[in-house]
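To whoever is covering the structure queue this week,

Two jobs came back overnight. Logging them here so there's a record in the thread.

Job A:
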Amino acid sequence: MPLDISSRFAFTLEEPSSALLQFEAATLPDQAIVDAACRITGIDHEERVPAQDGIGERVWLHGSGRIEVQYEARIKATRALHPLKNMTALPLHHLPGEAVQYLFDSRYCRSDEYQGLVDADFDGTTGGTRIAAIRDWIFGNFTYSPGVSDASTDATASFIARAGVCRDYTHVLVMLARASAIPARYVACYAAGVTPQDFHAVAQVFLADQTSGKGAWHMVDATGMADLSKAAIIGVGRDAADVSFLTSFGPMTFEYSKVDVASRA
């Protein structure tokens, strides 16, 4: 079943400056754009550039005053999901270049100091079993609470608070996966069933499956809200900073954001 997506937001650039946007679903081997339309008003210049890892596009804007973005799309995903517990971790010396950067600390995910914790709290687990245990621990111990975190909240603060939104759940999962020497990256997506409905965040971890032994990225949602087989991926990054739907490089006043996602027969 395809997803019908409606995404709208508006902001004001207080002086002539640039902004970088990432809000459109990406074209992927397991994700097709059936139909899409985008309208951006109030700008002087628009230019599209490839996003992180070549997944999706970012949009450079330049202008001043009120800017409004309207995006409508129908996306059909044909993504097969595999049980995490059947997957093993690749030996580090066999990791491909694309995965290596996702072992390291990033702006919101400082994983080095958690290596002892994951070895103690998730002792006896490895690979996909470790990731499943981390996912289930976050789901069982965190409270989904809009308003308790903001754009400055990092994974350590969320780990201590045991509360947050999808962004915070994902940052903690990414941090603990990297502390376990498993590459993990942040994924921005659209998904039905998310409450409250908004841009959604999940993780991808790089694991080997038992059949081929080759490594691949596998999606994980610590909130438990999204049907990952149908989610529409927007982009990926080291953490939320890499896939923000709006990054302003000048004084900016944000007005509103409204996202609607429905799964259609």
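Job B:
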Amino acid sequence: MKQHIDQPEKEEKFLNFLRIEEDSKTPKYKQIVDTIISDIENGIFKIGERIPSINETSEEFYLSRDTVERAYKLLKKKGLIIPVKGKGYFVANTGGPKELRILMLLNKLSEHKKTIYNAFEKKFNLEEVTIDLIIHNCNPYTLESAIIENLGNYDHYVVMPHVDEVTESLVDTINKIPEEKLILINQEIDGIQGRFSSVYEDYEHDIESALNEGYDSIKKYKRLKLVFPLTNHYRPAIKSGFTRFCESQHMSYEITDTFKHDLLRNGDLYIVIEESDLCEIIKTANAQGLKIGEDIGVICYNDTPVKQILIGGISVITTDFEKMGETAANFILEKKTDRIKNPFSLIKRSSI
């Protein structure tokens, strides 16, 4: 950066305030935003003080005017700076303590993920906190782009890294989030560094232990059949945990990717993930005159209100989604760092 020894102290600060890394993957406009936010928070620029103009910043740091203008528009949108006609931009009076800003990145907006979000949100006073939500649809590139686009904009990043493929680039991008600001939920992935927080499921151990919990009710069935769809991004560890349970208990088992009517057999217990497969099993059982809970058994993955009342209650193996959201919120509210396994259990109802 240029040195201006003869400039007054205020002008010296104006001409040396910006920190731009040419080789950074973070866009330059974002680096401008991040620097000015940091300088405001650290008191380098005080409320009511003028910051360098768009032209000053553009010329001094060899940046395009469009780049600087984009950064200032974003700062204005955040309410951090205000334009004064004929005078430039000034640090705004934000009125009291800085609002807490949280970004939550979920893989999809299913009923279970809504439960996590609602439980998380409920823990905060929304007059003091902004919680933004982005859905990445299990696409690692969408998740990566969302993180890069929002680096430096939030105090905490609650990330569900449930994607089709964990790429090296995605891991590198998540590692750009300061460790004290990162909270992983639902699962952990290898390669994330530092003392971040997480509340996670252990898919393989969870299903095995839940089935063991219900062994006295399960053992009356001749064979266990897991209907595990190839779509919808379910974790392969679910199959591993199911297999370990069946082999350790010396039970006959089968894994199929879809339920077909001719699969239904008296004396079998079906473990299903998709509600569409559950509906097909119920319809087929009714057509064949088989009673669920006596002739055949059914266990579903993840609980919903409908499963609590359907045909007298469907047994489920499920994590506590509400608890997951609450735990993630408590990391922030209690200013603590921890890695916590979320509760997972079998809820027995009339279907087994």
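Note for Job B: Confidence is low (pLDDT under 50) at residues 1-10.

Please reply-all if you pick these up so we don't duplicate work.
Q.
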